[in-house]
Prior knowledge:
Largest sheet: 3 strands, antiparallel
Order of helices and strands: HEHEEHEHEEHEEHHEHE
Helix content: 25-40%
Number of helices: 8
Number of strands: 10
Amino acid sequence: MGAQPPTKKLLALVRKAGVLRTHELESHGISRVYLKRLVDSGHLDRIGRGLYTLADADLGEKRGLAQASKRVPHGVICLLSALRFHGLTTQNPFEVWIAVDQKARRPAVSYPPLRIIHLSGKAFRSGIEDHRVEGINVRVYCACPCDESNSAISGGSWMSPSKPKNVAASVRQKLTNLSKQRGEEFQFILSEYAIERLLYRISCSKHSERFVLKGAKLFSLWADQPHRATWDLDLLEQGR
Length: 240
């Protein structure tokens, strides 16, 4: 039996990988010219610089997470994107929120659009889960405390000390209950949840002394009934 034609071999490779990076062809002895041929024939789609997938592939809303993880394999999906991944919000952010180590270079990625968050030490390493999305390993911060240190989107002291079987459903239900208890919009509670966990991670990092909290967020610390609700976070960074 003769050798498998390069085009069939390439299609099988893309089908197995989900999203293929150009440099991965070298180890399989396939010329890049076959990528262009398969794109021109409609068998493959070029979804980003150096990224290819099957034309009929359906990665759904998690396609961006798979692409981002392929381009930034050392990064971790965090904050709004992690909330969306775990089904804790209906908001689908335009950018993929991804955390990288403080010492890492900023990824030079044009697609998908990224919101880069720099973290360090335990704040970066803790609470990471590995998931497979169309054959690609996607690292995501978990939705509750996974060990003694809280994750980027964990719930704080009101969470159960034991990890439930369905973490995302448990966290969402607790946030829903809190929303009803306070009589506040669920999306606002979710925003508070993400902001407070980001503050926690900053407090765990070596850069905690460089940032000063300011703006309307301080009202919730000064009084039980803040003057007005705020959906954002204002920080003042001190000079290096």
